Amino acid sequence: MKIAAITAGGMIGAVLRFWIGILLFQPHAQFPFSTLAINLIGSFVLGWFVVHGSQHIKNRTLVSGIQTGFLGSFTTFSTFNAEIVLLLDQGLYSIAIQYFIISAVTGIGAVLLGIKCGSVLLEKEGAEQ
After folding, report:
1. Nearest Cα to 6, choosing from 72, 58, 53?
2. How many CB atoms lie within 10 A of CB 97?
3. Closest CA to 82 of 109, 42, 37, 34
4. Which residues are CB-neighbours of 65 under 8 A, at least 6 positions away?
5. Beta-carbon count within 10 A of 44 CB
6. Most buried residue, 44, 48, 73, 106, by CB count within 10 Å?
7. What angle do CA 61, 66, 67 make, to 5 degrees?
8. Contacts of 26 (CB under 8 A, 6+ apart)
9. CA–CA distances in Å: residue 71 to residues 21, 31, 43, 116, 121
10. Predicted structure pTM score
11. What does the pLDDT look like over 27-47, one tens digit per residue?
12. How far is C-alpha 25 from the geometric centre of its chain's CA atoms?
C-alpha cells in the first residue's frame, strides 16, 4: 500500500512540476527562473509539511505518499534543503556543511559527466552514419 501511495503522489508531483514549468517558462531568460521557483515552492512545502502537515496526518502511508511521492517528484531540491536544516537543528554543523558541499560539487560533476557521455555517444552515432 505504501508503494501505491508513493507512486500516486509521484505521478501527481511530476505532472504538477511539468505544468508549473510550462506556465513559468521564459524562453529568452538565461536564468532558470521556473526551476528556481519550483524548487523554492517545493522546499517551502516540504519544510511546512515535515513540521506541521505530517503531525496532523496519522496515516503514515499517506505521509509517505505526500513526502516521498508528491514532493520527491515535484522537487528533490526540497528534500536536500530539509535534510540540511534537520542536520543543523540537530547540531550536526560539520555534517550539514559536508553534505551541502559534496551534494553541490558531485551534482554538478554528474551533470558535466552526463553531458560529456551524451556528447561522446552523439558523436559516435554521427560518425557511424
Report:
1. 72
2. 13
3. 42
4. 2, 5, 6, 8, 9
5. 12
6. 73
7. 95
8. 33, 34
9. 15, 23, 9, 30, 33
10. 0.71
11. 888 778 888 888 889 889 988
12. 18
